[in-house]
Amino acid sequence: MDYLLTEEQVMLRDLCRQITDEKIMPIAAQLDKTEEFPWEVVKVMADSDIFGVFIEEKYGGMGGGLLELCIATEEFSRGCAGIALAFSATALGTDPIILFGNEEQKEKYLPSIASGKKLAAFAITEPAAGSDASAMQTTAKKDGDHYILNGTKHFITNGGEAETYTVVAMTSKDRGARGASVFIVEKGTPGFTFGKKEDKLGIRGSATRELIFTDCRIPKENMLGKEGQGFLIAMKTFDMSRPGIGAQALGIAQGAFEAAVKYAKERKQFGKSISSFQGIQFMLADMATQIEAARALIYASARQIDAGRTKNISKDSSMAKLFASDMAMKVTTDAVQIFGGYGYMKEYPVEKYMRDAKITQIYEGTNQIQRNIIALNLVKETAKS
Amino acid sequence: MNIIVCIKQVPDTTQVRIDPVTNTLIREGVQSIINPFDMYAIEEGVRLKEKYGGKTTVITMGPPQAEAALREAISMGCDEGCLISDRAFAGSDTLASGYTLAMAIRKIKDYDIILCGKQASDGDTAQVGPGIATQLDIPQVTYVKKIEDVKDNQATVERMTEEGFEIVKTSLPCLFTVVKEINEPRIPSLKGRMKAKKAEIISWKAIDLDLEEDKLGLKGSPTWVSKIFTPPPRPKGQIMEGDPEETTTQLVEALKNRLI
């Protein structure tokens, strides 16, 4: 389907496709095994100006928005969702600075992210605070011109590899949801260390690690927005990032689908290609339709945010993430089914797509949380009318 | 330092088809790419500029659509593209091509290094690069796998041979043809692609160059292709089995039977 992309967007898509085919696909299976961080691909992405696609030109970016981010994420994820995360999790870590950073903060942090010299990461999740972010234990206590951070964040994508972290911590615990604030913390700050690296089901080419803060002193200039705005910043960040998770799921599904079509044409049983059997044809038709529907939803939700719309974007972003990630789980499972016994083997690429797809139903808000957000907004909308 | 990279647009190598009647390449419906060996020349041209400063100009001789190849080279970092295109050049063999390109390079005038791929993937002659150097009366080093050092109008390069490599020191200007061992061509960046899209391509016809008419195109080409064919597959060999004594006897008998 033609989404009437601009010439620049088509150029971006083709470039990301080339990087995926030439640099990501050949190493995806190996990194899945070794869990190495894809620094070589990161360098190619950086040299190709990819990290700047969603950053304003005056900060060294290419001046694109969320749709550009989604296009790049989709293409990279078609090759390997784990490797793609080096890029898309950097975008997640950067969003709070783009949305709430003041001029000095933007000038200080955005250029090195746009050029790909530094990766970023966003840190909100804690061992006892997943969907219930308000149960957060990490504290930031004011001490003169500094805040002192104490606590542990876990499951942090790009943890240990990124240089720039946006970290949510409680500045006044007694104020509950209004007591959180966001800080920019740089790797190497005394008192900031890394803990356990996770051994995961999928996205194994991505680093997922603990961040540990022990009396870590952060200058007050590093606070984003105002004290107490932490949850607001986190929610606005997720409104921006959820179409990106949708795009990741979309890319995974697209990759699995392409492999399934190719295999169905090659694989012969009963003297014919299995693609000539209606049972397989119907599966492929459903997969293609679901993928296209997800793409339409993701692009539309990204476009309205890029156009400056603010109404309903929480609901629409959640819909894009929810639909695309459930779709990806279904499509990748069906791709394994089409491959039959071979699909279950690690020698073939589709079981990896299936493992990679699962996380998209879980992170940046489980799909149950997405349904909560959608329903809550529906109730609000109907209450107004 | 000013660098000139000579490139050629060729049919995508996996899809070469030959017209059985005219013995020329069938170009219709075949995608064109930059000759793969020229990609290394472009990359080296851009690297030299990045290292020593200056300008890298990419030139090609071919039909108007060869402009796409120049734009791709610019997206990789070349500064300027120059298309040499005229019906008068049609049918050029390696001598006429080398002459025409050399005359275009004369017109550019200011150059220190000329880079070419070691050969084109369609004709495989490896003659045009050396031809250009000869016409320009400058030194040439072929099969260069490393440009070690460039200073004081001199360059030290490593030249690949079958046994290993030679280290060659040459004065500049000089023409190098490069092999794939020299570098890994980059993927053009987004900014590079955007620049290439807008870039103005210099276009020269026969009259723009100071050319002798009888050295051009078909007229200026002393060689022509009389036949292109796929050699027949080598017939199956004969394997002799047994201990060395037996097989030696068998072999001698077989050779005797063939009157060798």
Give the SSE map:
The complex is a heterodimer of chains A (385) and B (260).
Chain A: H1 7-34, H2 39-47, H3 66-79, H4 81-100, H5 103-114, E1 120-123, E2 139-143, E3 146-157, E4 164-170, E5 180-186, E6 192-197, E7 208-219, E8 223-224, H6 230-266, E9 268-269, E10 272-273, H7 278-306, H8 313-339, H9 350-360, H10 367-384
Parallel strand pairs in A: 1-4
Antiparallel strand pairs in A: 2-3, 3-7, 4-5, 5-8, 6-7, 9-10
Helix pairs in contact in A: 1-3, 3-4, 3-6, 4-5, 4-6, 6-7, 6-8, 6-9, 7-8, 8-9, 8-10
Chain B: E1 2-7, E2 9-11, E3 32-34, H1 36-52, E4 55-61, H2 67-75, E5 80-84, H3 94-108, E6 113-117, H4 128-136, E7 140-151, E8 154-160, E9 165-171, E10 174-178, H5 190-198, E11 201-204, H6 244-257
Parallel strand pairs in B: 1-4, 1-6, 4-5, 5-11, 6-10, 7-10
Antiparallel strand pairs in B: 2-3, 7-8, 8-9
Helix pairs in contact in B: 2-5, 3-4
Largest sheet of chain A: 4 strands, mixed
Q: Could you name the CATH homologous superfamily of chain B?
A: HUPs
How do the strands line up in the largest sheet of chain B?
9-8-7-10-6-1-4-5-11
Oligomer: heterodimer
What does this structure look like?
With 385 residues, chain A is α+β, with helices and mostly antiparallel strands. Chain A folds into three domains: 7-119, Acyl-CoA dehydrogenase/oxidase, N-terminal domain (Butyryl-Coa Dehydrogenase, subunit A, domain 1); 121-230, Butyryl-CoA Dehydrogenase, subunit A, domain 2, CATH 2.40.110.10; 238-380, Butyryl-CoA Dehydrogenase, subunit A, domain 3, CATH 1.20.140.10. Helices cover 53% and strands 15% of the residues of chain A. In chain A, the strands form three sheets. Chain A has a four-stranded mixed β-sheet with strand order 1-4-5-8. The model of chain A has no long low-confidence stretch (mean pLDDT 96). By secondary structure, chain B is an alpha/beta fold. Chain B is built from six helices and eleven strands. Chain B has helices at residues 36-52, 67-75, 94-108, 128-136, 190-198, 244-257, and strands at residues 2-7, 9-11, 32-34, 55-61, 80-84, 113-117, 140-151, 154-160, 165-171, 174-178, 201-204. Chain B has a nine-stranded mixed β-sheet with strand order 9-8-7-10-6-1-4-5-11, with helices on both faces. In chain B, strands 2-3 form a two-stranded antiparallel ribbon. The model of chain B has no long low-confidence stretch (mean pLDDT 91). At the A-B interface, helix 1 of A face helix 5 of B.
